[in-house]
Design brief:
By secondary structure, the chain is α/β, with parallel strands linked by helices. The chain is built from ten helices and eight strands. It is globular, with a radius of gyration of 17 Å. The protein binds nickel (II) ion. Nickel (II) ion binds next to loops.
Length: 269
């Protein structure tokens, strides 16, 4: 374990963080300092994901400030009650911005008992997917305890290969196989390093390298040994080390492959 931590500290990328929230208030005191520190630590780029119109605009502002930051615009399932065709029209406008590379994050979240009703979440998810198809951008999918419905909607909406990523993938290896058969992507973050990550490890093992990307979901989901602290992209090497171990590859190969996949997925030149 000590050896592996030593290696982790030496791994510096470059890596691409496909799912971050640097607009979050957790970064209000030191946002610029932190973004620059992550850049120093090997972050080649990152996509900040909106959760509604307001936060999507915040992500775009960051993308305008830093050439290596990109944005996604969309309506998160936890914000599904704010979904209206009018809000979708506003997101459609934001998607015209040259640094908005995806729709998201959106999807289904059945974890909270007091969350938005399933029917409203589904309606919101479908509207976001249709925007993604209309603008030929990929969709960033948040699927929490809603694997069957999420898959069904993606299939029903005929999302093309390369058109979706399951962020912080938490399903089984069996579900992963179905997602693979559609050519959709997966991204893994800190949860892969948690003690109870058996299912995620099994899933990661069956996913081909060509469909894998790295993420933080920062400020949330800090990997072991930083668990519980505020997460940043500088912690991505801990996740890359875990993925390298699962795949039996060197960590540099994991950085290289996941970065190339991210650039391809988001059509970043
Ligand atoms: Ni997120």
């Amino acid at each position: 374990m000590t050896d592996s931590i030593k290696t982790e500290k030496n791994s510096r990328g470059p890596f691409f963080d496909t799912h971050a929230h640097y607009n979050d208030s957790a970064f209000d005191d030191d946002r610029d300092e932190m973004i620059n520190a992550c850049r120093e630590a090997g972050m080649a780029g990152a996509v900040n994901c909106g959760t509604d119109v307001r936060t999507s605009l915040e992500c775009i502002a960051l993308a305008e400030k830093y050439d290596f930051l990109y944005a996604a615009a969309g309506i998160h399932p936890e914000e599904a009650l704010s979904y209206t065709p009018g809000e979708i029209d506003k997101i459609r406008e934001l998607l015209k911005h040259p640094k908005v590379v995806a729709v998201g994050e959106t999807g289904l979240d059945y974890y909270y008992e007091d969350g938005a009703p399933k029917e409203i979440q589904k309606e919101n998810f479908i509207a976001n997917i249709r925007l993604a198809k209309e603008t030929a951008k990929p969709v960033i999918v948040h699927d929490r305890e809603a694997h069957a419905d999420t898959l069904e909607i993606l299939k029903q909406e005929k999302v093309p290969a390369g058109g979706a990523v399951f962020h912080c993938y938490s399903g089984s290896a069996e579900t992963a196989r179905e997602i693979i058969s559609h050519g959709w992507f997966f991204s893994f973050g800190g949860a892969l390093t948690f003690k109870n990550a058996r299912r995620a490890l099994e899933a990661a093992a069956v996913i081909p390298m060509e469909l894998l990307m790295l993420e933080t979901d920062c400020p949330y989901m800090a990997p072991v040994p930083m668990r519980g602290k505020r997460n940043t992209s500088a912690n991505i090497p801990f996740v890359a080390e875990k993925l390298a171990e699962i795949k039996g590859l060197g960590v540099d190969r994991v950085f290289e492959a996941t970065t190339a996949n991210a650039l391809l997925f988001f059509k970043i030149k």
